[in-house]
Amino acid sequence: MADNNTFESLQPLGWTSERAKQFSAHIARGQRPARVIALHRGVWVVDDGTCEQRAKISGRLRHNTLDEADLPTIGDWVAIAGAPNADAEAVIHAVAARASALLRKTPGRESTAQSLAANVDLILLAAALPNDVNVRRLERAIALVWESGAMPVVLLTKADLAPDVHAALAATRARLTGIDVLALSTLSGDGVSDVTDFLRPAQTAVLLGPSGAGKSTLLNALLGDARMRTSPVREDGRGRHTTTHRQLFRLPNGALMIDTPGLRELQLWGEEDSVDATFDDVAALASVCRFSDCAHESEPGCAVLEAVERGQLDPERLAHWRQLRAELAYLARREEGRAAQVWKRMAASGARALRAHIKSKYRKP
After folding, report:
1. How far is CA 136 from CA 123, 130, 140, 153, 280, in A?
2. CB 155 within 8 A of CB 129
3. Per-residue confidence at 271, pLDDT binned at 50, 70, 90?
């Protein structure tokens, strides 16, 4: 069995002894581990510790993958075959189990998941001061982060444009209880070192936020060069979309950073517990209501409503908690219906195949 030292060159990419155990069977078949470091319009780029090369998915892997979200995504560890040559194309045969997965509902009416990144430890949620700090959007994003298994940190970027940074920080922290919120300016450099303090060698962070939030500019500051193209703000003060694909970078301190394009839609995917983790103050109140099935609408002894009446809970925060939980509950019902339809089609297909087999077996010559 391959030990952790067999692939020392992969350790800066996050390789561990646990990963080595996962890959022992693939290594025995002549495949080698690599990490997906870029994804652009169905083209994968992998790094096996010795070189970076383009890769494609094997036909068997594509055929055996039931959900698109389970196909390789940025940050995944994959088993590849082919010469370790930057000019050659590798073949991805398997995707290792993910330690964490950042998923969102696919934009549109489909009830399916889209994988944004895998095996991440920290997710940096960027919002630009002074006018693009949408707390409701941040609450939604934080719920996604808790569901992924990573840790959220909120970054209020472009602090040099804010008339009162301290007031903006205080207001955001008051709403996002229990979440680290930092303010920074890449123009002056203020606060950038505070972000670096969260980044650890061989751990993976993701920059997430809407277009124009300053993600690429921040990444350039962390990299120490202007590797990522940036665009000037528009006349209305809002930023322009720059990043067009997902890519993993190695930072000077040994940390790994995934840059992502701006997301126009951020629909939830997961369990209601992730919403409760985001609104832990509301969830704590709900747990001490008189009735265990309290709907927090008009029931007597409702600790949530009593907190609102006393001014201890923001009614808008309660309304958003209800909205996000209802959204996930609706999504769960649709997913159950979709699963039932898939099972029904599979059962019907199996029944047809069985009838055809019986008819063929007992057909008279």
Report:
1. 17, 16, 6, 15, 15
2. no
3. low
Q: Distance between CA atoms of 290 and 270, rounded to whole angstroms?
A: 28
Q: Is the peptide bond before 261 cis (omega within 30 degrees of 0)?
A: no
User: What is the predicted pLDDT for the residue at 347?
Assistant: 52
Tokens of 267: 């629909």
Task: State both tokens at 294.
Answer: 């309290």
The structural domains of the chain, ordered by start, are 4-95 (2.40.50.140), 101-259 (3.40.50.300), 271-365 (1.10.40.50)
Please say whether the beta carbons of 199 and 255 come within 8 A: yes
Tell me which long-range contacts 276-282 makes (C-beta under 8 A, separation of at least 24): 276/325, 277/143, 277/146, 278/139, 278/142, 278/143, 278/146, 278/324, 279/139, 279/317, 279/320, 279/321, 280/177, 280/178, 281/177, 281/313, 281/317, 282/313, 282/317, 282/318, 282/321
